[in-house]
Amino acid sequence: MKKVFEKIISGIITCSGFLTSVVILLIVVFLFSEGLGLFSQKTIEEGYTLVVNKSNPVEELNAKQIKEVFDEDVTNWEEVGGKPEPIMVFRFEDMQKYFSEEELGPNYENATACINSLVEKNPGIVAFVPEEFAGGDGFCGKRLKDHTISAGEVFGGNEWFPTATPAAQFGFMPLILGTVWVTVFAILFALPFGLSVAIYMSEVSSARMRAILKPVIELLNGIPSVVYGFFGLIVVVPLLQDVFGLPVGESGLAGAIVLAIMALPTIITVSQDAMQNCPRSQREASLALGASKWQTIYKVVMPYSISGITSAVVLGIGRAFGETMAVLMVTGNAAVIPLSITDPLRTIPATIAAELGEAPAGGPHYQSLFLLGVVLFFITLIINSSVEYISSKNK
Amino acid sequence: MDNKNISVNNHARKMLAQNVAFTTFRILSGVIVTILFIILAFIIIKGASVLNWDFITTPPTDGMKGGGIWPAIVGTFYLMVGSALFAFPLGIMSGIYMNEYASHGKIVKFIRMMTNNLAGIPSIVFGLFGMSLFVNFFGFGDSILAGSLTLGLLALPLVIRTTEEALKAIPNSFREGSLALGATKLQTIWHVILPMGMPNIITGLILALGRVSGETAPILFTCAAYFLPQLPESVFDQCMALPYHLYVLATSGTDMDKQIPIAYGTALVLVIIILFVNLLANALRNYFQNKLKTN
């Protein structure tokens, strides 16, 4: 009886040992199953279609072209591979501008006929209408071919307008670049400070000073990211606006500064641990040869612990890359490719946090946010694995 | 004579370089401590002027432009308890498996890698996952249950690591002694290993709770309610939470002048929780260390 009981408990403990692996597996499955759905969605909003005149040789437009046409950035069919003919944009909402209520009928019964006549009359038209009004007998327009969203459009696209009609733009480029941009600057700011504090704590300071600094760093690590974000929003953002004379203080720079403060504890603790692991004999040998303490630090201790310091930096990058709330609050969230660090920008985590609440479940916008989650997951997975690799190489 | 001069010069240069370097380190370390001090002082001074008994014990009123933060405090407390109930037992068992059961080698390495990877996953990804698994797939809806489970997953690697480290520090002689007396493996773990490791494990658990209390991203889509003056009645209700409340107050709303002071108060309460958690963890660590020494 007792033996059976032991077996059962041991079994439970063994199962729980693999819990984290199962969780990671589940994360992959769920994120992928939602995210990959994006690639089976059509470019044009569901239930709608684009109609052109029969004489128009254009067979299909990609998402970007559709957006340019409807934003009236492109005004001639020549620019998208057609005949030289000015484009006339027609949206279904414009119906009442072209037709009176009697013509349309009380319940839009005659809408199909109205669209039909409109498309027939205007050779340069492109009409964005519900599918039900663009078909049937005697329909004389031509429906543009629609295609599914491609991976190239998503990962190479440089426009993020997930709610644009008729064709939403799911270009990840501005978000990926925004994240990289903020992270790079955050690490550039954090590295000199982090390494200095680490060297100071491990090599220079007295034991008493270390006893004061350690809890301070731990506290810095424990403060929630919203509090940092709030501090950034109330203090850093207005400060930057004044100092650099920016139109808006919410910028990549504000994000980088806040992230730098947040990445510091990671960089400090990990690299300090690495330096403290440098054996006493190595230091003593260097000092005995007449090297000063500083020479010993940068010629012996630092090279010895370089893999630990590298892990520290990589972990700091990971922390900065995935940070959500603080960045969301201070970077201004403009989804454009950032040209300067003082521009507002938007990161991947901030995009997910800001938009998931509004995206209808199961729609392309929702799926694109899960796909962003997949991207984020894999980037952090790579970062973590490289840390494992670096530190395993040391041993 | 010349040789001596050179060596004196060399020495002087060496010491100069050292002094410059060390002074730089001191200054930069000072800057970091100052920054932390500024952040804390800022939150404490600004928050202290709003923080009073009424602020803590009354619900928000007037579309968040007035009143206190009581529901947010209660919500955060529920989430902490919920995630602890889920993550602590499982995490401790997982840690026990890694240190006591798993045959050393590839399995442990693999699990440790997975645990580290889980620890490195950004909190917003936990939020996405929690939403698709707990909220949609299991159909819990936006609820304390879904939020607690999501936060529990986030705390899991912390608990596992702490447990593993704590158990690793216990010398093998204790295990062997217990087994030699005829105790089974489970008895050894339950009566010898766990009680010895408990102090360190508890310290880690407290820090994990602190982490959970401040997380926003995982509960954005699984639990947090924007404005909910009444307290939750069951685990399937939504609840307010301090970090989310702070985020909402600071970024959206109609009357910033009235909201920002409340935000300061909320931030202060969060910082106090973290301060308390850190102090408690440190005090426990010191207490047990001293006890160990006197033994």
UniProtKB/TrEMBL annotation, chain A:
Name the Gene3D superfamilies on file: MetI-like, Periplasmic binding protein-like II
Kindly provide the name given to this protein in its UniProt entry: Phosphate transport system permease protein
Keywords, ordered alphabetically = Cell membrane, Membrane, Phosphate transport, Transmembrane, Transmembrane helix, Transport
What are the ABC transmembrane type-1 domain coordinates in residue numbering?
176-387
InterPro entries for the chain: MetI-like, MetI-like_sf, Phosphate_PstC, Phosphate_Transport_Permease
The similarity annotation says:
Belongs to the binding-protein-dependent transport system permease family. CysTW subfamily.
Listed transmembrane segments? 12-32, 175-199, 219-240, 252-270, 301-321, 369-390
Query: Is Kinase one of the keywords?
Result: no
Assigned GO CC terms: plasma membrane
Q: What does this protein do?
A: Part of the binding-protein-dependent transport system for phosphate; probably responsible for the translocation of the substrate across the membrane.
Where does the UniProt annotation locate this protein? Answer: Cell membrane
Q: What is a single molecular function from GO for this protein?
A: phosphate transmembrane transporter activity
Q: Which domain of life is it from?
A: Bacteria
Q: Does the keyword Transmembrane apply?
A: yes
The membrane topology term of the UniProt record is: Multi-pass membrane protein
**Record-level GO BP terms:** phosphate ion transport
UniProtKB/TrEMBL annotation, chain B:
rRNA-binding as a keyword of this entry, yes or no, is: no
User: Which keywords, in A-to-Z order, does the entry hold?
Assistant: Cell membrane, Membrane, Transmembrane, Transmembrane helix, Transport
Q: Which GO terms describe its biological process?
A: phosphate ion transmembrane transport
Out of the domains of life, which is the source? Bacteria
The record's subcellular locations are:
Cell membrane
* SUPFAM superfamilies, per database record: MetI-like
Chief site of localization: membrane
In this chain the ABC transmembrane type-1 domain maps to 73-281
- Entry's Pfam families? BPD_transp_1
Q: How does it sit in the membrane?
A: Multi-pass membrane protein
Keyword check for Lipid metabolism = no
**Designated name of the protein:** Phosphate transport system permease protein PstA
Species the sequence originates in: Marseilla massiliensis
